[in-house]
């Protein structure tokens, strides 16, 4: 069964201390996490001065890339359910002297996206949110026309041979709340539904993907 929000909060409360270290351990199985993060942030097409929202920002592993893209004149808004993950993000922000990062403690499903956003990103988080479709639509309404929503997340692979490894990969990602039931959640489809899909690129045998949607003038259905 998929974990409840309270279960996820408890899980990430315990994981926060060693989150950055354990996330890096996936390199041991050949998962080039940092390269994919760079690709996801590049896909936002951010400009200096933009405001970007990160949903489920965790400890802020994407912040250095986002800061480089928007510059000190831009703004980063990080939203997360788990106070302890945000505390880690706060330490990162302070250590780097970034004055333009706002951290919001709360549920993505309740987050009110500000208007005129330059981009929205979520990495390994949106599939954990049962209301992902609503979050994507709300985000779409906040985006300025021509700006992008980018998701980098897990999914079940479409390739048959890769499907053999599914139990193993679910086992490896279980400590982060991944369960087989989450396969029913397809944020990539919601990107297509609300924004029109610009691209859907699969990596790592189809276990992960980057979905990019660009807002037209409205958020379509
Ligand atoms: C696997 S971590 C990903 C963190 C970060 N995005 C990264 O790429 O390293 C998942 C994060 O999603 C957050 N999360 C889970 N459900 C959420 C929700 N409903 N609203 C906001 N954040 C949520 C968790 O607290 C956790 O920090």
Helices and strands in order, then pairings?
Blueprint: H1 5-15, H2 19-24, H3 33-44, E1 51-55, H4 63-70, E2 75-80, H5 83-96, E3 101-105, E4 117-123, H6 132-142, E5 143-154, H7 160-163, H8 166-173, H9 187-195, E6 197-203, E7 208-214
Parallel strand pairs: 1-2, 1-4, 2-3, 4-5
Antiparallel strand pairs: 5-7, 6-7
Helix pairs in contact: 6-9
The structure holds S-adenosylmethionine.
Residues 5, 8, 12, 23, 56-58, 61, 79-82, 85, 107-109, 123-125, 128-129, 176 line the site of S-adenosylmethionine.
In short:
The chain is built from 9 helices and 7 strands; from the N terminus they run H-H-H-E-H-E-H-E-E-H-E-H-H-H-E-E.
* Distance N to C terminus: 29 Å
**What is the CATH class designation?**
Alpha Beta
DSSP strand tally: 7
Hetero groups: S-adenosylmethionine
Uncertain residue segments: none
CATH architectural grouping: 3-Layer(aba) Sandwich
């Amino acid at each position: 069964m998929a974990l409840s929000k309270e279960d996820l909060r408890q899980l990430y409360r315990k994981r926060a201390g060693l989150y950055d270290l354990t996330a890096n351990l996936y390199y041991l199985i050949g998962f080039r996490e940092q390269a994919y993060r760079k690709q996801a942030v590049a896909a936002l097409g951010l400009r200096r001065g933009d405001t970007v929202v990160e949903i489920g920002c965790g400890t802020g592993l994407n912040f250095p890339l986002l800061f480089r893209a928007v510059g000190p004149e831009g703004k980063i808004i990080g939203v997360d359910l788990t106070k302890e993950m945000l505390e880690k993000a706060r330490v990162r922000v302070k250590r780097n002297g970034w004055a333009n990062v706002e951290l919001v403690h709360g549920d993505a499903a309740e987050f009110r996206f500000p208007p005129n956003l330059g981009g929205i990103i979520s990495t390994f988080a949106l599939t954990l949110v049962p209301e992902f479709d609503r979050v994507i639509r709300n985000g779409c309404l906040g985006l300025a026309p021509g700006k992008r929503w980018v998701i980098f997340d897990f999914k079940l692979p479409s390739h048959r041979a890769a499907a053999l490894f599914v139990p193993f990969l679910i086992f490896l990602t279980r400590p982060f709340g991944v369960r087989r039931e989450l396969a029913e959640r397809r944020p990539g489809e919601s990107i297509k539904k609300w924004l029109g899909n610009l691209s859907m690129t699969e990596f790592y045998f189809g276990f992960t993907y980057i979905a990019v949607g660009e807002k037209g003038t409205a958020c379509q259905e």
